[in-house]
Amino acid sequence: MTDAAIASTATGRSTWERVTSHRDWMGFWFMTPAALILIMFLAYPLGLGVWLSFTDAKIGKAGSFVGIENYEWLSDDTVFWGAVFFTLGYTIIASIIKFGLGLYVALLLNKNLPFKALLRSIVLIPYIVPTVLSAIAFWWIFDSQFSIISWSLTKMGLIDHNINFLGDPWNARLCLIAVNIWRGVPFVAITLLAGLQTVSPSLYEAATIDGASRWQNFRFVTYPLLTPIIAVVMTFSVLFTFTDFQLIWAMTRGGPVNSTHLMATLSFQRAIVGGSLGEGAAISTAMIPFLLAAIGFSWFGLQKRKWQQGGDND
Amino acid sequence: MTEVSQNFAKANLADASEGMSYLDTLPRRVITTWIPLSLILLVLLFPFYWMVLTAIKPDEQLIDMNKYNPFFVVGPTLKHINKLLFESRYPQWLWNTTYVSVLATFVSLFASVMAAYAIVRLRFRGAQLAGGLIFLAYLVPPSILFIPLATVVQSYGLFDSPMALVLVYPTILIPFSTWLLMGYFKTIPFELEECALIDGATRLQILTKIILPLAVPGLISAGIFSLTLCWNEFIYALTFINSVQNKTAPVAIVNEFVDGDIYRWGSLMAGALVGSLPLVILYSFFVEYYVSAMTGAVKE
User: Fold this and answer.
1) What is the ipTM of this complex?
2) What residues of chain A lie within 8 A of the CB of B48, using their CB?
3) For residues B102 and A180, what is the distance between their CA atoms, to the nearest angstrom?
4) Residues A41 and A116 both lie in one domain
5) pLDDT class for B1, splitting at 50, 70, 90?
């Protein structure tokens, strides 16, 4: 009401007053700082990246249009396909385990515990510490000579020589996935916990009186009420895992022999270290369809269930 | 506001109530709750214990794992930390990180407050669309932007300058902060603004004198979370900064500390420890704000 009244009085005034006080103009001015930054440093580079992927730009040399040559070149490149498959595997395995463990931790923390707030803050610490720095700690834990894991297993008599954690392609891949899970579980757990806390305990009491088992309590009370939050959390989790860079760069830099390159690290390797911006941009651009698919899948996949179960009625 | 406080009261009530947990016997509770929880906490915290332990271990204990039990330290030393703080450029890198993070946080808080207020309260034509676009910006990851951004930064003449990071980091922070603040602004009743409008306040006055004081918790949440994200940021800092004296701490540790020296682990871990401490200390003071920042942005 008030806004409408203001709008109608503003129309009768001079241009200057309209530009400074009309609702739409005010909206425009208020949006300007955010819009300027996002257009200059996000939207424009996003478009530029796609354009660069069709050029042969090098560092220090503006490229010329070469059509889909970069993509043709990449489609024959086994390192690129290796990175694509590792990125997919890394994302899928890590996301599933992060979701499972995260939900489990959230359910544990949602119980009636002493020092609940303290426990919750401790669980979140791996997420607060800069990824690169904890990755370096893991790099040391996975050292080929002085690994504490090798040492413990040797002392327990389980192995007789040190495990080559980051020197062997498959070991390195599994280690990176494990570290990603280690870092991602707190985020999933704490956000799901926030969702769990909004579920009223009386629902569980009612379900239990009706004879529901623990599993049924989870399956038919907790899970349906939690789906909207799961959808959002997992969308972000998948997104951040798929575009991960820091962890790989700090621990293996894509080695041994390019076996642990994610698409992000490979594009950095080619574009910034190797200098061929065009090719790197083509790898980055190739990530976009995967990202859209991942977002669409986790978003619509879970959103639909929410709708089927009448989750948006509350 | 009353609605909010009622919700809080309700949440507290639910937290304090015993629920059905009295049905669990003590042994059952130990097996289903405490044992798994302790194992998980052990795994989550072990790397930090290891980081601290390595940072204060004398060199000979680092590599001689037969004579000394590696899980403990005999005669801890501050040598590594000392070397880090007084014989390397580490203080400079920490300062760079702080400087860039604080500036970028303020730039993005300013832009986000304006944008969030406009979207929630001015309801100008296209406000919905603007909100949607800002959310989409949240989904664009730095890993696909750094290559074109490197050329953009180069063409603006900002390459190798901390200002490049100050201007680029807000692209990560603004979408997040705007959505968080939109949620906070929505809880502030319209009536307060209407009173102020009748009394002749301009929109800017309403924003600075009524909305912002009421949204302080939201501003703190957005601010410290932004600070953390900046401190954490790696790929832009790695790409845009070349000279040693301009690097941020995370990048500098990865690039400058890694040499062939077998004893490097002590100083590496000291570097990782000192680089993490400011955030952990900040976190310990503002836990609740962090949690509400994380969950708030997800819930919206």
Assistant:
1) 0.85
2) 125, 129, 134, 137
3) 28
4) no
5) very low
